[in-house]
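Check my protein:
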Amino acid sequence: MMSEKQGSISDCGDDLFTSLEEPLLHHAGSEARMAKSDEHMLAGSTCSGRRARDSRYSVLVFPLLAALLLVAAMLCCAVVFRMASVLTGEEMFMSSPSTAARHGGLRASYTPKSKEPSEAELWPREDSPWNESAWESLRTAFHFQPPNNWMNDPNAPLFYNGWYHLFYQYNPKEAYWGLISWGHAVSKDLIHWLYVEPFAMVPDQWYDENGVWTGSATMLPLLLDGRGRGPSITAAATTSLEKEEQKRRWQQRREGDAQLIPGIMYTGSTNDSWQVQSLAFPSDPWEEDGLLVQWEKVADNPVLFPPDFINVTDFRDPTTAWWDDKRSLWMMVIGSHLRPTHTGIALLYQSADFLNWELVPHKFLHLTQGTGMWECVDFYPIPTSGEPRGLDTSVSEWAGGVKHVLKASMDDTKLDFYTIGHYDTESLTFTPDEEELDLGSGFRYDWGRYYASKTFYDPLLQRRILFGWVNESDTRDDDIIKGWSGVQSIPRQVWFDNLTQNSLIQWPIEEIKSLYNRTISLTSFTLESGGIFKVEEAQGAQWDITVSFTKPTLHVEQGPFMDDDSGGAVAPFFMGCNQNEILSRGALGPFGVSVLSSEDLQEQTRIYFYRLFMQENSTSNPSWKTLVCNDLSRSTMASHVDNGTYGGLVTVLQDEDELMLRILVDHSIVETFAQGGRTVITTRSYPTIALDRLANIYLFNDASTSIEVRSLTVHELSDINIHYIN
């Protein structure tokens, strides 16, 4: 079904496209809205003029028109025949009459750029090591993923009226990217999820026809309209009295006294592939169940067009907004880049009413040359003292001290980098604490296959929660056969590392313990050089494993592990966690844990420590680091999937006498947390033998000296059995 804008000018034939381009050509804020308001009048006058001109030539062209009509009729017949065998837009979105009714008859269409092979053409595949049962064994049991098809970025996670909400980029038709809509799930504990129907948003307007892309939620204070019901959040305050009332409401929000409802700002890809920002609100935020099933896009969409100094396809993924008390303005960041210098930028916008936005005079919150396009930017405060906790995004001052985290997903490398620094509320700029740890050269959330992450503040438990997309590392043909692609990581709590004073800690949320159903514990034993230890009665593919080793004290290597000429903190990843480096044994490793292992060890995913470094010219409190790696080189007998080795350095403090790993194993995903979560690695494994109860756990020591195992704890985890909410 066409949008109102499209329907009003559709009688004008070719002028439809001209009229829709009008607002895109005037992309600077207020001009864009003026262009949209004049759209109907311009279209009508154009049609009238055309009819007047055509009347003078009707006698001459009538025979030609008759012939054209005949050709058109033949083409229509062909189209109707084709549609009989192609899934329509309505069928894509409406799997049942009840779903269609709740959508209000919504229709959308999608035409793939190229014909995809059908399942019948791909399955069974002679060169595939998996059958249908094996593919089912590789599907995760306690990570969130939709029942089928493609999923990528986590979107707008939030807590509202007793429920956690997770939205996500979703293709409702196929197991590859396309027809991007917003899926929706809810949970009481961030572990046990329920699918919500219908989809939260679908590409049904001209401004998001090519996809409802990534966005964020902001909890907004409720301003009542004349009926005492319904959000008038987007109504601009005009009088001084209204402005004072608005300011009071915003202050109530800060103090937790105002009723809040979520507003979503998201990127839409228009019918001309421009990237624009639009708003949506829950249709009925007062519904008793708090599920936020229905969402409405505001009539004024889009509310932001790309500024004229960037490319129109480089303007996406707005952040959660924060309230600036000093200016009584909302602030928000959108990612982009400056193509001539390949500079990644965080564009900073401000608004008094959450509807009318303008770029701040200096344009940027932060920028870094040579980093390319910044996607899925995130910006949030963290307290620097006290117990691990989070802060509301609008907090800029805290009694125990506060810093800010700026994170960007790098489109060039598909890696999530973050930096910690100072947000100046006067100049509205962000400055990293350490220049060498700026975005693109410093810390990563994850050293594996992890991207497009998003945090939110959990007001229930006062913590900052992180989600991230974990993509597949098999082939697209495999994804089409199995019918699904993409997993969300286990939600992680993030907080400032008070010990290193320059990085974050990431740790699986406590609620994962609700899945524990049996435990195996061992303490104090030695692994000799070359030794292998099988963990008895640990057959399966769903585990939470914690192991600690006594830190070796001899043969510590001294060297510049942070070599600026080699790319800063990133260099050791390329120099250390690769097959050429780990072939030789050393005094420290490799030693660690082997998971998803077949009985004969033909297949195994190895997680290990390797080598220990102490920085040259260190002070009395030297900086020690070790490599931690996820090694996929023997993870599968299949030859066409990723078999690389992922990893990076992790800090080991001088007074820490143990090396610790926590490993979450869920069939085809392995998440590793080293040294209490200072370094995290997420990878995918696709065994052909070590499936389900044929998968084993081993400890191994390939170091040249013996290693002391202090403790080993293995928890088997239950399925979460996601289903649709009634």
About this structure: The chain has three domains: 4-92, 151-496, 512-719.
